[in-house]
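Now read these lines:
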Amino acid sequence: MGGDRRIGMTGTWRLARPGPLGRLLWLAFSLAAWFALNLAVQPARAFTPFPVAGGASEHRRISDAALACRGGAPSTCWSPAALDRLEVALKRPDITLATFEAAAHCDSGDLAPDGTSPGGRGPAALQACRTWIRTHIDLALAAADGLVDARGLPLQDARDCAWRALRPRTALCEVDFHLGRALHAAQDFYSHTNWVDRHDPAKPLSLRNPPGLDGAGPIEWLAPGEEGPPPPGLMSGCFVFFPESLFCHGRTRHQDLSKDSRAGPETPPVGATPRGAVNGNFPRAIDAATGETARIWTGFHARLIATYGETRGQAMSCRLRGLPPSVCGSGPSAAASSDPGVL
């Protein structure tokens, strides 16, 4: 058969070519179907990106725990308004095409039962995730150049975080965009890998119940400057599309390792997924992701100053955190503090 010819039970026929209206309707249907499928797989992708259990999203909970001002030195924390901004960027990898990018969620680094990585998975996929995190931190650092001038005063285009279609259009939003992607992947690392895990002792070790590494806190392998291979046995689950049983047959799946959501408002939290519900794995993942978030921000703040100098770097940090320079001790405080776009 050639071209668009088809053989039916009653003979030969051609597919009708849709007119402009038909093409428009087909495009609308395709977009609606894509969004429906995309939203359908959200529970399988990352720390729950939308409000759950009567509170914030898990990504927001983690960021608040790591960065919010809670009675400490205000020069080291983020304002509620800045955390609201960051939350938008943190959620984007779960509601855009990045939801299918394994590196954006530290997915598909699974191992065979004997610890090998068939098909180039395992360490290669985990290395891709670390590269994704570092690349977006570097891009955020470069974008910060548009936040303030040489005196540390905010530039006009840095006042607000605004979007044009799917891309940021201001320096402030560009930094948020890349920081959000880096932090999302870094937080997902602890939900999607077996770093903090202890396997379910009531079941035999298997693809569905792989060994955990029982790690505590942020992993040294993600620390700035660390270039070695992943620790032996470190893995994440396979995710290609939904349902996972179809696309990840014969592999440890994302759902076998994920600790993405909580069962309720209890404190300490209890995980809702099979892996998160045993051995305190869910709160362990939350604690480690919180420590990682704090480590990334501390390192980023230091790089701003090292790259742009004390005056500009401190002022950039202050703008990102939504705090007035008089609090941060950066830039010409009196002039900048009167700027209504600072807070």
Remarks:
- The longest strand covers residues 5-8.
